[in-house]
Specification:
The protein has 246 residues and is α+β, with helices and mostly antiparallel strands. It is 60% helix and 7% strand. The protein is globular. The structure holds glutathione (GSH).
């Protein structure tokens, strides 16, 4: 049985896990679902509410960090630096991006894109079963309502997230200011992968397997903000990680 990766295809935490499996050379089949409709797959697999989930025989992994550690065992050093000190730095950065950057880019991105009519076709309805796309016609108000409440997608929440994204990009920019090629050590690692995948909803890189840049979906001030993030040192770095390593 091939490894199965249960996802919401456009989710950036899912992209983090997908990229890690690709990087470690693990063949897998992706089982993508729309938000809420993914619960059936995760619960039947013995996992909880969130994706990504990896199922490999009796092994069920329910968090992207856990998936990366598992993937690295298949190809040691492909994600986690072998040197203990560099590894600790890389894991600390990953944890920082998981806690601060991921929720912020998700909230800001949802706030901007949910009201756009083209979002459904361009972002949501891709790489999921056809019946789920049809069902979305009826489930959308409920699904969007739950997402908005669950993730606090409000103007105030989006503004706080914008500031948090700025803060992370400034901190990453400060690390890069010494001319380093990668965030931890001299090789691509989990730190670079986590940063580039979790910032992707607002830097819209070329080469993302499940998310087209779709820059035209952002309008006015939001588009100017995306352009600023994309052209910042940290945003440019994230796009380079996609160009060179994805
Ligand atoms: N810490 C988790 C976070 C995963 C996560 O937040 N997944 C979201 C999608 S971006 C999810 O599955 N949300 C569905 C829900 O909470 O019902 C990880 O790194 O895997």
């Amino acid at each position: 049985m091939p490894v199965r990766l249960i996802t919401i295809p456009f989710s950036h935490y899912c992209e983090k896990a997908r990229w890690a499996l690709d990087r470690a050379g693990i063949a897998f089949e992706e089982d993508g679902h729309l938000p809420m409709l993914h619960y059936l797959a995760t619960f039947l697999a013995g996992a909880k509410r969130t994706v990504p989930v990896v199922v490999d025989g009796n092994t069920v992994l329910t968090d992207s960090t856990e998936i990366i550690a598992w993937a690295d065992q298949h190809e040691p050093g492909s994600l986690l630096p072998k040197d203990p000190k560099t590894r600790a730095v890389a894991l600390e950065l990953e944890d920082d991006f998981d806690r601060n950057l991921g929720p912020a880019t998700r909230r800001w991105g949802y706030f901007q894109l949910m009201p756009q009519p083209a979002t459904q076709q361009r972002i949501l309805a891709k790489h999921v079963p056809r019946w789920e796309v049809i069902a979305l016609r009826f489930t959308k108000p409920l699904a969007f309502g739950m997402l908005k409440r669950g993730l606090n997608i409000t103007a105030e929440g989006a503004e706080r997230s914008r500031a948090k994204i700025d803060d992370t990009l400034d901190r990453v920019g400060a690390l890069l200011a010494d001319g380093r090629t990668y965030l931890a050590g001299d090789q691509f690692s989990v730190a670079d992968l986590a940063f580039a995948s979790l910032v992707a909803p607002v830097t819209r890189p070329e080469g993302h397997p499940m998310q087209e840049p779709a820059l035209e979906l952002f309008s006015g001030a939001a588009r100017e903000q995306v352009d600023r993030w994309r052209s910042s040192p940290a945003g440019t770095f994230a796009q380079r990680m996609y160009a060179d390593h994805r």
